[in-house]
Amino acid sequence: MKNWIYHAPQNDAAGTLESSLKLHAAIAEILVKRGFDTPPAAERHLDPRLAHLEDPLLIANVGNVAERLARAVAGGERIAIMGDYDVDGVTSTTLLVSILRALGGDPLYYVPRRLEEGYGMSREAVERALRDGPFSLFVALDCGTNSTAEIATLTAAGTDVIVIDHHRSKERAGDGFLLVNPHVNDVGGTGEPWSTFCTVGLVFKVCHALLKLLRTRGDGRAAGIVLRDYLDLVAMGTIADLVPLTGENRLLTMHGLRQLQKTARPGLRALMRVGGIVPGARLQPSDISFRLGPRINASGRLADAMLPVRMLLCDDEEACAADASSLNAMNRERQEIERRVCAEATEQLTAIAGAHPNALVAHGDWHPGVVGIVAGKLCRQFNRPCIVLGREGDWGKGSGRSVAGVNLVEALAPAAEILESWGGHPMAVGVTVKAANVPELRRRFDDAVRLMREGGAADGDETLEIVSWLDTTHITDEFLDQLERLHPFGEGNPEPIFGIADVSLRTPPVLFGDANYRFQVPLDSWRRLGVVAWRKADNLPPSDTPLDLAVKLCWNYYNGRRYPQAELLEWRPAEGAG
Questions:
Q1: Which architecture does CATH list for 55-233?
Q2: CATH fold for domain 3-42+463-573
Q3: Axis crossing angle, helix 293-302 with helix 87-102, rounded to the nearest 10
Q4: How far is CA 83 from CA 80, 124, 313, 338, 447, in A?
Q5: In this structure, how many other beta carbons lie within 10 angstroms of the beta carbon of residue 44?
Q6: Closest Cα to residue 278, out of 288, 290, 269, 265?
């Protein structure tokens, strides 16, 4: 069992929020602990509005990119758009193609074929695009920051190049093209609202700037475009790419989830149907992470990611339904492959985990399209950063996933000289290494994470931080309504964990499904809190014994009604509130 930690507020800021904004004490405590310790800051967090967005022209090169796109559309130029094959790349491509089409442009779009052309703006992918003829403008989305040679080839042939990307640069960016990438352009360091954007957020900013520019010039088509209608795409890419759901990312995601709930895109509606999402249902980030995102990714992992872009851009209901069905079938195939790879990688890592207590690397004859998903599962299973590599001839190619507090980009820096390529962002990276160097990578990666932990740069993750202690009388409708205003939760903005003190179960838990169980806790004379524990049947709580519960709380919306619900993370014999 983890060590439960609770830190009481150090000043009266929570009390001030509680009284001035009429908040539940626990909600005020959460806001203060997350840095929203004044009434204006707390109100802005509770009610984020699109009017709060910063001017997109503050981002380096966005104005220049908007001007170049406007000129291309006005001149009827041939435009190529190449986006990556994951959800961020697919939604980025869909967003930019949609806006340019609405403005009268006719861009061609391309997605790298993962198995044939590798990652991103590779030479093979660019050559395939150029077989359709020369372009005056080439736009790379969610890739291209490190494609120096490919960009040089295009610019030498007279093609202007725009790169909109959020991946880290391994070397100084080249000249002769327009780059929108906060990590490379270094506009104001890491404190700017867009510093944690994924690519679809940056594309949204570029589109915002483009429409502002054209509206000042009296363009009627620009005046008729409602940019809010495209936030469903922004929410999907932002959630799926594991960037922090804080600041403007959270703002765009909150409004994007609402837009997704009522989306007019036949492709998204078809995808939600095959994903088991009821039309009009209230959506959470988990719906994208576990239902929509994997189905989009399945195409890029196993086949050709042009299919989901085509589906998202399509207006034909029957064609979209067919494409969604194909994605669903690919996702089932991906799940079967993933289960096999996960079992084999688990066996391998179990054997070496004792020698590598801080970070793990698995390497085998595995499909490259599933290694990222497997890395995420193993990361959670072993509670440490994991890299999973598929074998391609003499090379190991794959992905890494991290735990809270460990920046993978920094952790891999000591191994840079033995890596052919690597890059990404703190929670997810891609890696290519000579197969012969995998043992050395294991050693350096483990050492780097150990040093980060010893230096205080990473948490051991053996603690469970209780944000506030409650008793059952605190869990009211008003409390759950206020808690809902803190959504959406996600990376960098975790769902709060509450302690419920001194609870006794009247009846034993009921087992269901794959090692899950549920029970109920009385809240008052007639209301009950449904509690569910996922895959924890090996540690059932006793009945008729005082317990403390560590839980996540929410409304459960079902069949037109709502019910208080908790997810149990841990239980322990009652020790008193905090």
A1: Alpha-Beta Complex (3.90)
A2: OB fold (Dihydrolipoamide Acetyltransferase, E2P) (2.40.50)
A3: 100
A4: 10, 14, 14, 25, 35
A5: 14
A6: 269
- φ/ψ region of 174 (left if φ > 0, alpha if ψ in -120 to 50, else beta) reads beta
Phi, psi of 529 (to 5 degrees): -100, 115
**Contact criterion met (CB below 8 Å) for 547 and 568:** no
Contact by Cβ (8 Å): 240, 88: yes
**DSSP-assigned states of every residue in 115-138:** HHH-SSS-HHHHHHHHTT---SEE
Structure confidence at residue 190 as a pLDDT band (50, 70, 90): low
The helix (run of H) or strand (run of E) holding residue 179 is: strand 178-180
Distance CA 257, CA 247 (A): 16
Q: % helix / strand / coil in the chain, to the nearest 5?
A: 45, 20, 35
Q: What is the pLDDT of residues 146-178, one digit of tens each?
A: 899 999 999 999 999 999 999 877 666 678 899
Which sequence spans correspond to the domains of the chain?
Answer: 3-42+463-573, 55-233, 353-432
Residue 291 and residue 275 in contact, taking contact as beta carbons nearer than 8 Å: yes
Q: Which fold would CATH assign to domain 353-432?
A: Diaminopimelate Epimerase; Chain A, domain 1 (3.10.310)
Among 284, 67, 91, which Cα is nearest to 201's?
A: 91
Rg for the chain, CA atoms, rounded: 25
Summary mean pLDDT of the chain:
92
**b/e map 507-538, b = 16+ CB within 10 Å:** eebeeeeeeebbbebebeeeeebebbbeebee
Assign 38 to helix, strand or coil. Answer: coil
* pLDDT for position 168: 79
55-233 and 353-432 agree in CATH topology: no
CA distance 281 to 110: 33
Structure tokens at 407: 């920046």
- For residue 463, give both structure tokens: 């603690």
Contact 388, 345 (CB under 8 A): yes
Residue 355 has pLDDT above 80, yes or no: yes
Cα gap 140→476, rounded to integer Å: 50
Q: Are strands 510-512 and 498-503 parallel, antiparallel or unpaired?
A: unpaired
pTM, full prediction: 0.89
What local confidence, expressed as pLDDT, does residue 459 receive? 47
Strands 510-512 and 561-573: unpaired
Contacts of 423 (CB under 8 A, 6+ apart): 146, 167, 168, 170, 409, 429, 430
- Residues sharing a CB contact under 8 Å with residue 258, sequence separation 6 or more, in sequence order: none
Whole-angstrom distance, CA of residue 223 vs CA of residue 559? 40
pLDDT digits (tens, 9 = 90+) for 221-272: 999 999 999 999 999 999 999 899 999 999 999 999 999 999 999 999 999 9
Sheet with 516-522: strands ordered across: 468-470, 498-503, 547-558, 561-573, 528-533, 516-522, 510-512
Per-residue three-class SS string for 71-101: HHHHCCCCEEEEECCCHHHHHHHHHHHHHHH
Tell me the two tokens of residue 370. Answer: 């599933």
The Cα–Cα gap between 23 and 17 comes to 7
Question: Is the per-residue pLDDT at 299 higher than 70?
Answer: yes
Closest CA to 199 of 93, 310, 62: 93
